[in-house]
Amino acid sequence: MFETLTDKLTAVINSVSNKGRLTEKDIDDTLKEVRRALLEADVNFKVARSFVSSVKEQLIGQDILSSITAGQHVVKVTNDELIKTLGGESVELNKTEKHNSILMVGLNGSGKTTTSAKLAKHLSQSGQSVGLVAADVHRPAAIQQLTVLADEVGISLYEAGTEVSAVQVARDGSKVGKKRDFDWTIIDTAGRFQIDNELMDELEEIKDSVKPTEVLLVVDAMTGQESVNVAQDFHDRIGLTGLVLTKMDGDARGGAALSITSVTGVPVKYIGVGERIDALEKFHPDRLASRILGMGDVLTLAEKAQATFDKDQMADLEQKMKQATFDLEDFLGQMQAVKKMGSIGQLLEMVPGFSMMKGKVDSEDLEGRQMVKAESIIYSMTPEERSKPEIIGGSRRKRIAKGSGTSAQDVNQLLNQFKQVRKMMKEMSSPGGQKKMMRMLSQKGNPFGF
Length: 450
What we know:
58% of the residues lie in helices and 9% in strands. The chain is built from 21 helices and eight strands. It has helices spanning 3-17, 24-40, 45-61, 70-85, 112-125, 140-153, 166-179, 197-210, 225-238, 255-264, 285-292, 298-308, 311-323, 328-341, 344-349, 363-366, 369-379, 383-387, 394-404, 408-428, 433-442, and strands spanning 100-105, 130-134, 156-158, 184-188, 214-220, 242-246, 268-272, 280-282. β5, α9 (225-238) and β6 (242-246) form a beta-alpha-beta unit. α7 (166-179) packs parallel to α8 (197-210), α14 (328-341) packs antiparallel against α17 (369-379) and α19 crosses α20 (408-428). The two termini are 20 Å apart. The relative contact order is 0.10.
């Protein structure tokens, strides 16, 4: 996410952050490069111009040129301005005491139907009752897709086929939601390949009929400025309450995220960060600004870990660490838990300072292919071999390699990595072990091997 923009901005800002005292020319040269980085990231030119102008006004206005911490102040002001440009504060869904409904709108290909299911799962996990309505009657595949997704996330779905009008389906689905006392009814509507009067007329009818609490536009972040134009057109015609930016994990530039709220005045409420059904995050401008500047996002990382790792399992793991009984079955479980949190590349973005190391890490490691290989190797072992890896000799290695479609060298590599992890975990459970762990992580290389 934002690799191109992050690389350029961090390079520019780092060039002045360690300088100490700055001249006005230093600031002008720096902001010229910042503006260029924003424009190359497909940020709206008016937004880029306003951003740079505001940063310069704050820097010059605060008379920091004589300060020995001027470079550090540039970082702070840039970060604050990024937060402001991204919307300032995270915006919650509007929620009344009684039944609420969300109208999901957007063009075809933006991920609207999938996002409807993701949002249903997200709200359900927070303890709220949710129902889905398949109101895209123009595309039978959309109804089928939402049916499959609703079943996957365990959410009730109302659908009436393609013979009933979209307005009627939305109205009836909303009534069912109220009757069943759902906290939220999410209505998936039809999209088009381009904005047209037929699409907008239908959405206006549905909105007038249902009177939704929220109207969320789902837009593809990878389309850059086009997504900003789409958002503006939808907002002008039907009135939006929020935005969902999808495919943020594939958006290396970031222009849409940095421009869309400034241009339209509509807040981004969620971002899609992957294909998995749980790959939807609440939008936090301060956290995203921190990621863009390569400073990580520890809060989101902690939330993901808390949601992924079971407390009882962690307590059991801690006990195994103390007793040195951590085996390959436990190793496999931890790898699978990490995978649920996202790709290795996404997780590294949230670790302060690690985003700048991504270019030095093997792409296979970032995409998790090494982890998949490790899983295949462990699955090819017998239960006894997983619990007692020390019994794995030459013939067993060959059999495991053949069964997993890997080589004996790959099996050896995994076993060596496992030994390192088990040794490290044993040391962590000892007095002073955590300090030693931090020293290991600060060294070049990945002690986990994936």
